[in-house]
Specification:
CATH architecture of chain A: Roll
Strand order of the largest sheet of chain B: 2-3-4-1-5-6-8
Shape of chain B: elongated
Number of strands of chain B: 12
Distance between the termini of chain B: 76 Å
CATH class of one domain in chain B: Alpha Beta
Helix content of chain A: 10-25%
Number of helices of chain A: 2
Radius of gyration of chain A: 12 Å
CATH architecture of one domain in chain B: 3-Layer(aba) Sandwich
Distance between the termini of chain A: 21 Å
Number of domains of chain A: 1
Strand content of chain A: 35-45%
Helix content of chain B: 55-70%
Oligomer: heterodimer
Strand order of the largest sheet of chain A: 1-6-2-3-4-5
Number of helices of chain B: 27
Order of helices and strands of chain A: EEHEEEHE
CATH topology of chain A: SH3 type barrels
CATH superfamily of chain A: Ferrous iron transport protein A (FeoA)
Largest interface: A-B, 32 and 45 residues
Shape of chain A: globular
CATH class of chain A: Mainly Beta
CATH superfamily of one domain in chain B: P-loop containing nucleotide triphosphate hydrolases
Radius of gyration of chain B: 27 Å
Chain lengths: 87, 617
Amino acid sequence: MSSPRLIERLSRGEIATISAIDRAGLDPETARRLHELGFDEGVDVELLHRAPFGGDPLAVRVGNMVVALRCSMARLIEVEPAARAAE
Amino acid sequence: MNVAIANPVVALVGNPNAGKTSLFNALTGSRQKVGNYPGVTVERKSGRLALPDGRIADLIDLPGTYSLTPRSPDEQVTRDAVLGHLSGEKRLDAIVAVIDATNLRNHLRFVLELRRLGLPMLVALNMVDLAERDGTSIDTERLASILGLPVIATVAVRRRGLAELGAGLAGVLRGETPAIAASPDSDVTLLQREARTIANAVMLAQGTQRRWSQRLDGITLHPVFGPLLLAGLLFFMFQAVFAGAEAPMAWLAGLVSSAQAALSSALAAGPLRSLLIDGVLGGVGAVIVFLPQILILFFFILCLEQSGYMVRAAFLMDRLMARVGLNGRAFIPLISSFACAVPGIMATRTIDSPKDRLTTILIAPLMTCSARLPVYAVVIGAFIPTTNVGPFGLQGLVLFGLYIAGVVGALVAAWALRRTVTKGPSPTFLMEMPKYQWPAPRDIGIGLYQRGLAFVQRAGGIILISTVVLWALATWPKPPADWNRPPLEYSAAGRIGAALEPIFRPIGFNKEIALALVPGMAAREVAVSALGTVYSLQGVDEDHAEGLIDRLRGTWSLPTALAFLAWFVFAPQCISTLAVTRRETGGWRWPAFMFAYLFAAAYAAAGITYWTAVALL
């Protein structure tokens, strides 16, 4: 077990597994949309890109989907090193 | 029962980016009806599909949504239609759930949610070719037996699987697949997990995740090359709008003037001839010649949308948009507003924060819409020399500058609005970035056809009417015999212009401009046809070979022309924009505010431009 980290602290191309989503920090609708876009505990994420002009928002791969989200929201998602070996 | 009434109603439902509209286009071709749902401005597209058993199904393309829990007005329409609550819409007889084979885990969740409704249903597993290319292989039969629903593999853009889909739909409508006991849970997390389990069970091989799409993102989202590429694309787009449209525009203009010449020799001089030549052909003709430019602009916007690049542009722009209190999502409505503010304002429905949405609506008219293009084109054509600056034409550069002025104006306005009238918490930015796709020629073609048709209908409708009204105002009353100035000055229109002139004189506008701005309220491009009507009636003798451009060159000073351009950067006058704003904001308060602030900005910008130009030139 290693300590949880935040998506924005991942290096580009690094794959990690979502360990917790702080749903209390979100309004219910946004929390729902996160799930509709595929975020969930146990799902792999990969940090793909940081936007120009300051590295916010982030482009993150979740499952087979690429999702753009701001750092402020990504901070509510904790990750830990991927269970499986990275490709 | 009448056969026409008995047509079963079938809706295409699916996540955004599932290829739903491509499938709809492939199934119905160009015989589509585009309308609006009553009370809301959500576009309703319907078409007909002949089923193999001889029946005709009415197919509806519902707005893409992630779930039946709506977050925006668009998604609300889909939910209401699917649940049979939408007023004016018949109850659905069946649903075709369109899902992306390369994104099975996410899209299956929505299928599970739809299945709970118990309506006859069929799943179109779309984009199977892309899944195969990625190395993903899906056991369609297994998926069908787990879901208890027919599953048809399709490739909408290549028309694969359409016959099977039709046959499957006929079967579903005959009630061959009984509605099955649905999964008991509606909780998103549980549905999501169930979807993942099913997806893992039916995927025989799982491919690499669209490496090529990600490699392309490496360039388009690059911190340095990304923004440069975006700026380059927009610049190229506006150069193409000007350069590429030159030949067809000249051809259309020739067509209009030869029609005028033919009428002129066929009819005896009189009010009818004047109405047809000066009113109808002079006015509508002046607008219709801009069809090529509008089609080129829409071509680029459709390509950017369908290729998936538009969302990347939103990603690149989010940080800058955040500085003025907007989010990257507003970038798409704003880019659409370059074509027309009406669809742009309608596209703000995808923005979920109300304050953010309102701000975007209020600044959307500052994006230079295609209706301003005719105005810019005429004035630039008349007053800006056709010289080159480096590899670029000066005319194109001036046009680009006007677009930039609109964008800067919009950003300043957003910044100011967010600190005053639309104060509120800063919004979030959360959106799917679809995989890149080569735009399908059929989808681009249908999109262009629908937009071109809408433009021509506008020219034939509101523009024609206002042109004829203006012609009448400019023709009557007839001046007395001893009137030695142009007859126009004696007419009703001339008097209105004279009454308005004092308001506009300080910013360098003449009577004719003041007059043209009035019918320009109907639609911005009417200002051009109004100028066309005013100036062709003002001539002592009919000399229709002489175009509007030459007339303006002879009668306007350069500062006046520049002030006119500056006015149109802000140009508050557009009834359609104000009407759609009223509908979207639910009252006259915001459209009135929009008109007032844009008028003030236009007046100030034109005044500053005029007096600066007078001082410098």
